[in-house]
Amino acid sequence: MMLQRWFFTVLLLVTLPASLAAQERYLVAYAGFAGFQAPVWAPKDLGLMAKYGFNGDVVLVPGSVRQIQALQGGSIHFAQADAATAINAINQGADLVMISGSLNSFPYSFMAQKEIRKPGDLVGKKIGILAVGGATETATILALKAWNVPRQSVTIFPAGDPVARIVALSTRAIDATVLSYPDINEALRVGMHALADMSEMKEASFPMNVMVARRSFVEKNREAVKRFQQAYAEGTHQFINDKEKGLAVLTKRLRQKNSKAIEETYQYFASKFSFPTRISPVGLRNTLELLSQRPGAKIDMNVNKYVDESTLDDLEREGFFKRLAGKS
Asked: DSSP string spanning 119-173?
């Protein structure tokens, strides 16, 4: 019996396509459970990684800062992070590059205690963020600048993930924070209100979802990267254009089980995601300019230092995006 099992195992390995038998398993990280993580979930949940021959799985690595650390350490291969965190790391010498993007505006609302009725009321208040150097801090600073509220007039500090920040709001440990769907609904439920929808602010052009990988990995594994780009792009496209599939992805992945909240999350992000999955040049310039204004910052303004969309260029020339768009 043992000999028979050994024979069939050897036979299976011999008859498998060489590329499949030897293919490495790639890990793609998402940062949390907000709706804007859907472009990472959809390729896996809708079978698109398998469709394009990309042997991958998705893993939770909380927060963009930790994702960047995991990429640099080689424990993951791709991460959907925000542009500010990626740029900061690359500018400090990290072997990283942004290869695509699926959301080019802030998905946040600025949630605050009910007595904070206008931006000027934030003076002297405490604002919670996820992490220093990440998207929530960048969004907060940008909003304060747009409102002419001096950065020094408020206290900004890390207060945990969205759930922790909602608890902090409810206990008045913080006075305001930025949240996305479906967490906005929970903040409203505990008595907060939306001071502003940041996606409607003219300063909101910001690459919130950028796919990041090690530059050396991209150069050595171009075919695998291209296969991933196809799955990522079609996942985003299907989410935008097929409500049933989009809702199925969110229902599976969100910690929120309220069907109305899931529906609202879908409606919001289906209209915000980008296709083709490219990083906005305007948003990238905005981010570079914003980061360069921080005290002591020395930011290289050369976009090519941070972005390599050459695999997307290949797909564009091959008509990939036109074919996908033609199916909708």
From this structure: GGGGTT-EEEESSTTSHHHHHHHHHHHHTT--GGGSEEEE--SHHHHHHHHHTTS
The whole-number pLDDT of residue 17 equals 41
- Name the phi and psi angles at 299, rounded to 5: -100, 125
Phi, psi of 255 (to 5 degrees): -75, -15
What residues pair up with 316 in beta bridges, in sequence order? none
Domains and CATH numbers, the chain: 23-105+207-327 (3.40.190.10), 109-200 (3.40.190.10)
Pairing state of beta strands 205-214 and 155-158? unpaired
Sign of the Cα pseudo-torsion (116, 159, 131, 63, in order):
negative
Main-chain phi, psi angles of 145, to 5 degrees: -65, -45
Cα distance between residue 299 and residue 87, in whole Å: 9
pLDDT 10s digits, 161-215: 999 999 999 999 999 999 999 999 999 999 999 999 998 887 678 999 999 999 9
Return d(Cα 314, Cα 130) in angstroms, integer.
36
Beta-strand pair 78-81/26-30 = parallel
Selection from 36, 40, 81, 43 nearest residue 182 by Cα: 36
> The tokens of 226 are what?
């291209």
- Written as six digits, the tokens of 119 are 């931006």
Rg of the chain's alpha carbons, rounded to an integer? 21
- Which residues lie below 8 Å from residue 236, measured CB to CB, with a gap of 6+? 38, 39, 42, 102, 273, 274, 275, 277
CA distance 292 to 224: 34
User: Is pLDDT of 48 > 70?
Assistant: yes
Secondary-structure breakdown of the chain: helix, strand, coil percentages, each rounded to the nearest 5: 55, 15, 30
**Which residue, among 232, 177, 219, 286, has the nearest Cα to 45 in the 3D structure?**
232
